[in-house]
Design brief:
heterodimer; A: 141 residues; alpha/beta; 7-stranded mixed sheet; two-stranded antiparallel ribbon; B: 422 residues; Aconitase, domain 3; 3 domains; 5-stranded parallel sheet; 4-stranded parallel sheet
Chain lengths: 141, 422
Amino acid sequence: MTRCGLMPEADRVLVAGEASGLVLALDEPLSFWGGFESEAGTIIDHAHPQVGESLAGRVVTMAVGRGSSSASTVLAEAIRLGTAPAALIMREPDEIVNLGAIVADELYGITMPILIVDEPTFTAIAAAERATISPSGTLTF
Amino acid sequence: MTLTLESRDEAMLAGDHGDAVALAMRVITRVAASMQADSLLDISGAHIDSCLYHGQAGLDFALRLADDGATVVVPTTLNVSSLDLLHPELYRGDDHTRSQALALMEAYEQMGCKATWTCAPYQLQDRPAFGDHIAWAESNAIVFANAALGARTHRYGDFIDICCAITGRAPAAGLHLDAARRAAVIFDLSAVPDRLLELDVAYPLIGHHIGKLVGTQVPALTGIPAETSEDRLKAIGSAGASSGSLAMFHVVGSTPEAPTLDAALGGNTATTHPVTAADLRVARDQLTTAATGERLGAVSLGTPHYSVAEFGRLVELLDNRHICDDVGFYVNSGRDVVHEIALRGWERQLTDAGVQIVTDTCTYITPVMAEIYGVAMTDSGKWAYYAPGNLGLEVVFGSVEDCVESAIAGEVRRDDTVWADA
């Protein structure tokens, strides 16, 4: 990872925090409820192309959210258990996902940053091996 | 855009009404900021999804609020929980989960929520009216409220539902506002034969199909016969909120904000996607993981909860015949609807025919079905979408007629004549 020139900034920081990890680029949106198992941190949606992959500790790129309202609780539980992604990078905000991260922060003081980025940055992170996020939303990858 | 709070919001945030209200207001303002809302608005009701147990975090949050004495300030209904309180003997999960789930349910009742335990609060006597601002969670209820009732709720997740209920406030953003409710894409079903659109089985498939394509856009559906029933709108919405993030849709000539296509678009220009019978057949096959002719282990109907009209149809289809003893036949419904069908004498008739009615919860979220030998069938797009992952079952999607005939035969049967040239 080399730092030089302008470093990409998130368009918006929905949940601020520091994170670093291997990147996992989701090929399709995932519903955390019904599609993800919070104890193991893995994708269980049989219709998802990455079923079986672990999200734990990864910087996950997911363009948009999907599915059930209960996803907020499942994500908050995964954050509590330490099986959640290190951070989520999205193209569009998803309130259901945000809520899980906001409430985990309020209850346990554990942050899982959520950033909204533009298309070129999204594509570049998705192709990177590792990414680091600063509390102000600067991305290094 | 910055969020401007009224003095009453500031007072809640500052803790003037206690720590629980302050926490609730903090969650609302954080979400409002992420939605780029410039203010909060008053709501007239809430529907809580957070009462379904998914782990310690949900219970920790509820107890933080309830133990501080928080109570709801608007009429608030409760979604399905993990337990069927009226048929507790059906529960096959572990004792720890049962006691945690029960504690969660009690916390929400303690905060003044009504013990409705249904994912179809729109089937209750008191339901939101056109134009009402509400804070509903549960994806199928959200999309039904917006599309079929013309009430206004954003696509809320767990936690903020109860925060809105105890503060009476919600972000003035998203689907609360006119701009986000207008159609941005058109799905034209004129090419689908009328004989298919006359059948209930078409509607979950329409929802599944558009849910996969629509992203976060609001679709307008054209080419569907006028005055589509509420049960069919429920089927479109719940399937589309499972295969995608459908939170609002218009059916031109049926839903209240779409008397015409122009009204649904509200000045937007939109691309039109034609939908064919072949698309619906593909949807049917995507919701099916097993073949016809296989041994049938179980049937599950009522996801979302079965309505009185749907129960009436089921009684008619069973026509005094008995379901095979080795087929578990489950129908999920709300306790208020079950009370109504009991008064009509249908509950007894169904039970005598071998139907197990499940209330307060649903067969795909909690272990209530007995051991299943064979594949499962359903007429629900949502159940078919989630059951293979949640329950590890092989599933065949079919019409309610197919489900009944299969349950009487003991093997999976599907009337394919409607799909003959699709």
